[in-house]
């Protein structure tokens, strides 16, 4: 079995879904997970914000526009009866959304619970369309309501799955469908509490759903279909010609995803690692390309660096206390503050009397500062960027940190850190210096980018289908 997760750009319109149908039609025993149509989740969150502001006309206007867009995309369902059924289901979803928006606009407030209910509409709608479109094109499929199989806590807007309940529910729903030679199709990102209240897994959670499904049913491979050729050696928005990293270890992929690589959601790898399931990142517009394969271990290469991740919007929080000197328990107390406010820390550096950490989620920063100032002096610095060079080969290269720093000579550094595993070296710089630093580092460790090419390492069933002329 292969779990195939398709992102928003891979289901954005009729043409994209037709490409999806061609890809899925060649796969052995596929299970399909889809995101909302491209841009829909952002628009749904905008609708929630309009409702919270009491702007009912704008909110309902956007609901109407989304309904019409989904009706248009549903034209990909070539069977008239199936299309009419899906249109009726879509209308029920958008009628309910319209009622919710109207009620919330009167209240002038949208709680996290209602944000999740609104945001879930995108995946519920897109998955219905894809399931019916596959069936209409000769690939019998069955829609699975993610709210019945992804069981989560009630931490709305980023609800962690309850894995034992989720695994049981997924197997009970999916295995009978596969036994009937049909293709299960479900929306990513969406779940529900044990009481049936709609939740979401957080932005990018459709990747996570794909991995959760793959782990639950013991898939042979988890595929992430997107609009790029794989995990790239650097951010293509900053570096002109990054290369595709053909093979990553689970550890490398986790580091890259955590430190800013946008192709893969950071949590995606976790269920795959637990069950040792390969993950492959592929381009739905060029399905014959090999993409990036992620496994527990990868072949040894000459280069120390596999790829360089980066992200902006970084804040450094510096905590200083002379009482830290010779005092045990200070670090525990410090990090308990971040844990209490559910804010992840990326990079940590320490000296005798101070600690600096980076965060990229500032929503709870005022409360964090208030708690920290009870026992230390606190300062913050915004508008920073983080660059993380990642590679399993870094540990064996004792000169690597020196070569990295020499490549960006003249760029002011705010922080430098090497992980305990020695799998990455991270620097923090001013956001304005990111283009210069990232391009210099990419030139130093990857040289001139290679042109994209079709590789024989692409999944075998795609190559054989292309040879038969079925693209």
SSE topology:
Layout: E1 2-6, H1 14-25, E2 30-34, H2 40-52, H3 56-73, H4 80-107, H5 112-119, H6 121-136, E3 141-144, E4 151-152, H7 163-179, E5 183-187, E6 190-193, E7 198-200, H8 205-217, E8 221-226, E9 247-249, H9 250-258, H10 269-275, E10 279-283, E11 292-295, E12 307-320, H11 330-340, E13 348-350, E14 354-359, H12 365-372, E15 377-390, H13 400-407, E16 415-418, E17 424-430, H14 434-446, H15 460-467
Parallel strand pairs: 1-2, 1-8, 2-5, 3-5, 4-6, 8-10, 9-11
Antiparallel strand pairs: 6-7, 10-11, 12-14, 12-15, 13-14, 15-17, 16-17
Helix pairs in contact: 2-3, 2-4, 2-5, 3-4, 4-6, 7-8, 8-10
Structure description:
The protein is α/β, with parallel strands linked by helices and 471 residues long. It folds into 2 domains: 2-227, Acetylglutamate kinase-like (Carbamate kinase, 3-Layer(aba) Sandwich), CATH 3.40.1160.10; 307-446, VC0802-like, CATH 3.30.2130.10. The protein has helices at residues 14-25, 40-52, 56-73, 80-107, 112-119, 121-136, 163-179, 205-217, 250-258, 269-275, 330-340, 365-372, 400-407, 434-446, 460-467; strands at residues 2-6, 30-34, 141-144, 151-152, 183-187, 190-193, 198-200, 221-226, 247-249, 279-283, 292-295, 307-320, 348-350, 354-359, 377-390, 415-418, 424-430. It has an 8-stranded mixed beta sheet with strand order 3-5-2-1-8-10-11-9, with helices on both faces. Strands 13-14-12-15-17-16 form a 6-stranded antiparallel beta sheet. A 3-stranded mixed beta sheet has the order 4-6-7. Strand 10 and strand 11 form a beta hairpin. Helix 3 runs antiparallel to helix 4 and helix 8 (205-217) packs parallel to helix 10 (269-275). It is globular.
């Amino acid at each position: 079995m292969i779990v195939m997760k398709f992102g928003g750009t891979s289901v954005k319109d009729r043409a994209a879904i037709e490409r999806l149908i061609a890809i899925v039609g060649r796969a052995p025993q596929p299970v399909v997970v889809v995101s909302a149509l491209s841009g829909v989740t952002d628009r749904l969150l905008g609708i929630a914000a309009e409702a919270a502001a009491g702007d009912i006309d704008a909110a309902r206007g956007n609901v109407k526009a989304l309904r019409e867009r989904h009706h248009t995309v549903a034209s990909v369902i070539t069977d008239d009866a199936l299309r009419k059924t899906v249109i009726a289901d879509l209308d029920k979803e958008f009628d309910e959304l319209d009622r919710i928006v109207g009620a919330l606009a009167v209240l002038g407030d949208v709680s996290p619970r209602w944000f999740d209910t609104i945001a879930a509409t995108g995946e519920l709608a897109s998955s219905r369309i894809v399931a019916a479109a596959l069936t209409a094109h000769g690939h019998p499929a069955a829609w699975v309501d993610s709210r019945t199989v992804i069981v989560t806590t009630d931490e709305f807007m980023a609800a962690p799955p309850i894995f034992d309940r989720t695994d049981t529910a997924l197997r009970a729903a999916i295995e009978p469908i596969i036994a009937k030679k049909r293709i299960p199709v479900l929306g990513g990102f969406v779940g529900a509490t044990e009481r049936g209240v709609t939740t979401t897994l957080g932005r990018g959670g459709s990747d996570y759903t794909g991995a959760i499904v793959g782990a639950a049913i013991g898939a042979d491979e988890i595929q992430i279909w997107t609009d790029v050729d794989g995990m790239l050696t650097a951010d293509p928005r900053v570096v002109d010609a990054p290369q595709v990293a053909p093979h990553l270890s689970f550890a490398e992929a986790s580091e890259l995803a955590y430190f800013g690589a946008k192709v893969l959601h950071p949590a995606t790898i976790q269920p795959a690692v637990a069950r040792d399931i390969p993950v492959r990142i592929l381009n739905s517009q060029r399905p014959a390309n090999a993409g990036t394969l992620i496994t527990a271990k990868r072949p040894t290469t000459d280069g120390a660096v596999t790829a360089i991740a980066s992200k902006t919007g970084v804040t450094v929080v510096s905590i200083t206390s002379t009482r830290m000197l010779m005092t045990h328990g200070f670090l525990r107390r410090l990090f308990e503050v971040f844990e209490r406010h559910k804010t992840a820390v990326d990079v940590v550096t320490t000296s005798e009397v101070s600690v600096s950490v980076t965060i990229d989620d500032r929503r709870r920063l005022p409360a964090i500062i208030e708690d920290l100032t009870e026992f230390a002096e606190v300062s913050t610095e915004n508008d920073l960027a983080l660059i993380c060079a990642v590679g399993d080969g870094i540990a064996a290269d004792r000169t690597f940190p020196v070569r990295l720093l020499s490549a960006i000579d003249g760029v002011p550094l705010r922080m430098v850190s090497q992980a305990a595993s020695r799998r990455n070296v991270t620097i923090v710089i001013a956001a304005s210096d990111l283009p210069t630093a990232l391009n210099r580092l990419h030139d130093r460790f990857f040289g001139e980018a290679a042109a994209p090419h079709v590789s024989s390492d692409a999944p075998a069933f795609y190559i054989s289908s292309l040879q038969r002329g079925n693209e």
